[in-house]
Amino acid sequence: MPAGVTIEFTHLTKRFGSGSGSVDAVSDLSFTVEPGQITGFLGPNGAGKTTTLRMLLGLVAPTSGTATFGGVSYRSLAHPLSTVGSALEAASFHPGRTAADHLRVYAQAAGLPRQRVGVVLEQVGLEQYGSRRVGGYSLGMRQRLGLASALLGDPSVLVLDEPINGLDPEGIRWIRLFLRQLAAEGRTILVSSHLLSEVQQSVDEVVIIAHGTLIHRGSLASLDMTETRQVIVDAPDRVALQLALTAAGYHFSSLRGGVIVENADAEAVGRTAFDAGVTLSSLSQKRTGLEDSFLALVGEEGAL
Amino acid sequence: MSEQPVRQLGHAIHAEFTKITTTRLWWMLALIMIVYVALVAGGLTAILASVGGSRGPQITDAQRAPLIYSFGSSIGYVFPVLLGALVTTSEFRHKTLTPTFLAMPRRGRILVAKLVALTVFGGLFGVLAMASSIGAGSGVMALFSQDARLTDPAIWALAGRAVLAMALWCSVGVGLGVLIPSQVAAIVIVLAFTQFVEPILRFASGLTDVTAQIGQYLPGSASDALVGSSFYSLTAPTVVGLDWWQGALVLLAYAVVASFLGFFTSWRRDVT
Ligand SMILES: Nc1ncnc2c1ncn2[C@@H]1O[C@H](COP(=O)(O)OP(=O)(O)OP(=O)(O)O)[C@@H](O)[C@H]1O
Ligand SMILES: [Mg+2]
Description:
heterodimer; A: 304 residues; alpha/beta; Rossmann fold; Alpha-Beta Plaits; 2 domains; 10 helices; 13 strands; 31% helix; elongated; B: 272 residues; mainly alpha; 13 helices; 78% helix; globular; binds adenosine-5'-triphosphate; binds magnesium ion
């Protein structure tokens, strides 16, 4: 395995179609992914994660901008599978081919030794199922086979699109440890997900996109915004409640399910309502975890 | 060319071969082809022998063996076309273009490798089909004490040209598959064209001299010109013919043109 490689996205843009029916899947996206750590590539459904990764891998032609591995595009890599291993969502297998044969085909195409097939099947825990047709595989087994394909060339970069989808808790634990170990070996690892909670235990860095644009880039800790506390409160007489909150100097927003009060403490809000003689129907302190920060960043309604 | 592209092409051809041999498609098609060709070649020999010369087309002893043996390619050719088209369209259908292009991002090289591997496989189909037509045909001829002409070098030259035709037909199938990536559409077009449209076109084109000139460039006519004998040459004996090597070049041109067009349309498209 060669030394870690930095992935560089520079003003990457993709527009599908043309004219009025066109879709701006990715817009002017620039960021880098460093070796030796796991970077989570996050965004809601339709944010453009898969499109971005497919452009990085030379499968989709960018409308403009570039995506490279240390300055070299995927197409120009001398030994693509030995440099970059990738598993994309909706893993693509011929259902009538066995897992071992599937891996053998791509090992041959990349000029890799035949023994790699057995090695990677064992690495992902499929050694007993190698001679079964992939058509009979469960979703979790397909995910593992996708990961096995990614590992064929013992690459220094791993690009995985939603690798946790379809894995059982045991499988999730396994892949976390596995990716940890690969990152500790100095590899560059980019993992996409539409759920922060799915990857928050395994990633060091996060890149968040929505509507095809970069929203946040930083360490996992940078997402922690627990100091901004919110209270969710509601009353049968919503107008009286809002008047009381305004009088007490609170900033709030009124939603269908209740009123969200910013920078507040449940006890203080309760006292304000009590003093104003407003009967409450609900009152709770909103816990702002990482997932909430994530949702706040990508917008309440998500991308769709 | 430097060494790297040549080696990569070698790897790609190797992988394309493995793709074909690791699914059941090829031997299922081969099996149906062998049975079909044997039934037609053996059955027709028997029918012609029992009817005698009284009715039906007049066939001399010298015509019989080449006519019967050429069924291997003249009716068997649809199988290598289907093989080429199905193997190619299955890459789109099962989205295996993704791992294929990941393992080798130079897409042109993969298409060339596919054409090479399937042309060789088409040749294998040719060998099997000719073994079937010659085996069944000569067997029945022996039963009726007819001369099977198995020691005639002309017969073996015909068999060789038939194998070449089958190989080229398989590459035509690849061209078609990359031009029409929808598997269902490709199958319908192959069957409709080979079983229905082309026979009618060939018959109709023979009606005037001008259309006959054009008609000889139809793929089926070119294939018959290459092989040198078929039941068409009995029903329409006046059709102007290409030389055998010209027939081969016409078939090759179909494969190359279709592959080229397919490369610039479906093959280079975004894989999403
Ligand atoms: N081939 C295509 N043609 C047209 N539009 C497309 C195509 N592929 C993707 N899109 C559009 O591009 C946008 C981004 O899609 P993409 O698949 O990259 O999102 P994603 O972040 O991977 O979503 P998910 O979490 O659901 O996998 C979507 O609006 C999608 O509809
Ligand atoms: Mg996706």
